[in-house]
Structure formats: C-alpha cells, structure tokens
Specification:
The chain is α+β, with helices and mostly antiparallel strands. It is built from five helices and seven strands; from the N terminus they run βααβββαβαββα.
Amino acid sequence: MGPLLPLRFPLDFPFETPRLRLVPVAEHHADAIWQWSRDPRFNEHVLWRQPRIPLQAKQFIDAALAAWKAGVAFSYFAECKQSGHTLARVEVRQSRRRPAVAEVGMLIAPAVWNRGYATELTYFGLWFSFENMEREAVAIDAAAANVASNRLLTKLGLHCLGEQDFPLPDGGVARLNRYVLTRDEFQVRLLPVMQEPGWRLPTDAGAAAEPIPSMAREGAQAPL
C-alpha cells in the first residue's frame, strides 16, 4: 500500500468536537495506552496484542507515528476540553485492499465509557475520511459481542455487511461486524450535524493550521 494522495486540509488543524480536542499522536501518548490497557474491560473488544510491559505500549505508538509519517494512517488523541485529560484515540487509515475506502478505529478509556464520546469520535472519523481524505466509502469494524458499538453504528445509519472472523495475534479468532457508509450518505445525513456550534473543522482547502500546544510539550499532560 503506497502513500495517500495529498489531503484536502492540514493535518495539524486544531480539530474539535463539542466536548473534545483532537491532537496528533505523539510519543507521550504511550502513557495513555499503557494505563487504559491495565483495565481488563479495555481489552475485551480490542483486536491487538495487549501490552504486557510499558515498552510494548511505546511500540504501539511508534507504529502509529510511522504510519502517520508514511501517509497511510492518521491517529488523533482526544483531550477533554474542560479537564485536559486524554480520553480516547481515533485512527483513520486507507484500506490495504481498496484504495477508495477508508477505515476508522478507536480506543476509549474505560473510565469514560457510555458518555457519548464514541459518537463524537465516529463523526470525526467519518468527516476525516470523506472530507479530508476524500474517500468514497468508509468501513468500521465492531466486535459482534460489543452491543454498544453495534447499536451506535446502526443508529448513525451505517450498513452492516454481516459477520466475519478476524484472526487474533495470540491465536483464535474474533467475530466482527463490518459496517460501511458512502460519502453521499454522510454528506446528506451526518455532515449537517457537524455544522452546528461546538465543532471546529476547516471549511475550505486554504484553511490555515494553528499551533497545537500539546504537540510542543511531550509528557506535559497526564492521562485520566
């Protein structure tokens, strides 16, 4: 898979959802990944090799930084606007098999589950895929056993293509539901929501990026 075509908007634009500030992945985010993975609930529906030592969390972030540099995947960490705590991570990447398709995945700290953050992050991931990467379709996978995620994606109007088996790093398989949405559907049904107060998104290709404070201070923010 080669690098993406040029994106429509600057990657360091200060993106915001109504309650979250999105900042590009940085080395200090390994601390958040390590902390979240200590909660057994966090690993139930995550398709990854759970970090056993802090070094493995660092390697996870190193891979995300490398993908960003290569232009094939973009990870943003979500900070609470009120507290500044790091609450989640959302990644948008080009499909390895279908160049016209983007894929969205996210990780949310167990301490803030069921508070609606997944909805805001899904909106952002879809916006980034369609409006910045200009893909024609987006795919999102949800563990078949993850009732909340499946309910959310259905509510937002994504189409479930059915279950599939996904091989796990430590052996065995996970049952996944794959959901898809087209660019036309997003622009008609979901994009108007993101034009309401509280969202901060570039509106034209000439949008200027602004400095993001957390990018300049490694480790300055302790995760929740």
